[in-house]
## 1
Amino acid sequence: MTAAVHTRWPGILEAYRRFLPITDHTPPLSLCEGNTPLVAAPGLSREIGASVWLKLEGCNPTGSFKDRGMVLAVAKALEEGSQTVICASTGNTSASAAAYAARAGMRAVILIPDGYVALGKLAQARMYGAEILAVRGNFDEALALVREVAQRLPVTVVNSINPYRLEGQQTAAFEVCDALGDAPDMVCIPVGNAGNISAWWRGFVRYHEAGKIRRTPRMFGFEAEGAAAIVRGEPIAKPETFATAIRIGNPASWTLAVEAVESSGGAMDAVTDDEIAEAYLRVAREGVFCEPASAASVAGLLKLARSGRVPPGATVVCVLTGNGLKDPDSAIRLGQATPRVVDCNLAAVETALAGGDA
Ligand code: AN7
């Protein structure tokens, strides 16, 4: 069979229209988000004795999964006559909101925790023309402030408390099922504000109801240990992790996420910063560069495997939520991504290579 390699992908609103709350009045917004690669991870598969797949959400137009929910949230805001979108963000939501607002001709206002957003994300949001306020507080405080602002000003909140965000994010689960021909056995996802794991689960349930898949997967969510509110069972006032994307202490979709792991037969667990860093480097050795928060999914899978909780031969999907290029500082710090400098001649190169690890 020959694959149709030149079919144009229309973006998720058109591709999954019948599963989304789209009307004749919804503007056809798209940056061709979705259709992200599902890449096999042979090294991890061998190590774990399972069939491990990586869903590269960092291949979305702004480099993270947020584009799936944002395209729908911004399209609906436009449909409803709104002119301004607002969000609090650890970085990726802001980049995505800024891009889709630019595309839709809307104003984007963004509140970020000062000093805790990766460089690439900040640069993106500014390039797309967003108005950025770095607040002296963490993400949870910024989100509370956004809710207050929205009570007073004519703005549309595009954080995942906007129901269209989760609706759009379901499409990642649809794609995995379309690619594998059925649901996987297990899905591992990093958890910050807990929207994504809730959306994926809803996607699997919806596809199951529609008769598209025969089973639903067990959902495993992983919080960073210093921000593991759901695992600990209480909000964390001062969340800490180097994976700044998931540095969130009071997840907005807490209840939905607990429902997702419980009704799917999965679990919510925490991974340490060391485990995240190890997985971040490990995934790069498979040829895939994700951001630190994304590696929490693989760190979690490795933790499950170590405790014998991955059945032999199971099909496992790890969701790599964001692109490694978002956070060059972490790569330089952990991956020793600073090059060794040598003289520009053959002898210098030969000497360097003889010593190994150039
Ligand atoms: C790379 O951008 O919350 O559990 O404001 O950027 O759905 O929150 C980002 C979250 C995982 C967690 N991986 O997803 C934001 C923001 C990456 C992320 C998460 C985020 P949720």
## 2
Amino acid sequence: MKRILTIQDISCIGKCSLTAALPILSAAGLETAIVPTAVLSAHTQFSGVTFRDLTDDLPGILDHWKKEGFTFSAIYTGYLGSIRQIGLVRDYFAAFGGEGVCKIVDPAMADSGKLYTGFDDAFVKEMRSLCAEADVILPNISEAAMMLGVPYPGEDASEAQLKELLDGLTGLGTRISVITGASLDDGSFGFLGYDADRKEYLRYGTARVPLRSHGTGDIFASTFTGALVNGFAPGDALKIASDYTGACIRNTYEDPEHVSYGVNFEAEIPYLLKLLGKI
Ligand code: PXL
């Protein structure tokens, strides 16, 4: 069984970060090692969250794993709790991210043009340099604009505007840059990306559903990682991520009892298995 590593927080309530990544990656048939970056009582859409920073635990976990000689097929990072943590993630990349190990960075730090609580410009700058070390980056529109220091073009940015952002992101040095949560010119909702190795744009959307929720970026990134490590080509893995995330959003929209802080990704796990060709 392939083993991957994911580094992100535990939001005890929130259906995001590790509580979404672990079930999705397990469903994808991958052994998933975790480095929890922080424990929050809930994700930061809520006010009054508790926040235990686990930065001090990161070096010890790394040293132990080096001694044990663990290896990983991919490393996927999500929400990181502090600037110091970004530096430590670099140490994990250096130790375990050698040749053939895909490094996927979701710079989870902003949405709707606003940084999540607790982040500032210095954090954005550091995240930008982590993205430069990744093979694949998966920012949303807000994160892309912030990392490039350009004005936020809004959630309904045109494909031409998104392509300008992609040009800037590709300039950071990443192989594949993908803007998630993109409104495509044909009215669908999905992603627009650029594969610098193959010199081609990647683009795909599913029917738009009028519901926005925290955690959908994490579901997209986890599914992409799971599909990629299962051998799907990057463009196909992105489509699988888009189809599954779209289905989770639609399921939630149609569920009158849905919670306000996350999507029903659990109910669509059978569909994920189909997309991955497992059933
Ligand atoms: O889903 C992204 C995310 C992850 N982790 C924490 C968050 C958020 C989004 O708000 O607050 C702690």
